[in-house]
Amino acid sequence: MVQDHTKSKLLMMEGAFAVLVLIFLAAFALDQFFPTEQVPIDGGTPGIVGFVPLAISSQPIDLLTLEPRSFVLFSEKTESFLLTSFRLSGQVNGEGRAEITLDNGLGQELLIYSNVKDRQGNLITGMATAKDGPSSTEGVPAETDDTVSSPGTEDRAWFKIMPQDDLATERPSIETGDDKQTVQGHFKDECSDTCYISMKMQEGLYYILKVKVDPGTEVRITELTYTLDV
Question: Against a cut of 0.85, is the pTM above it?
Answer without folding.
Answer: no
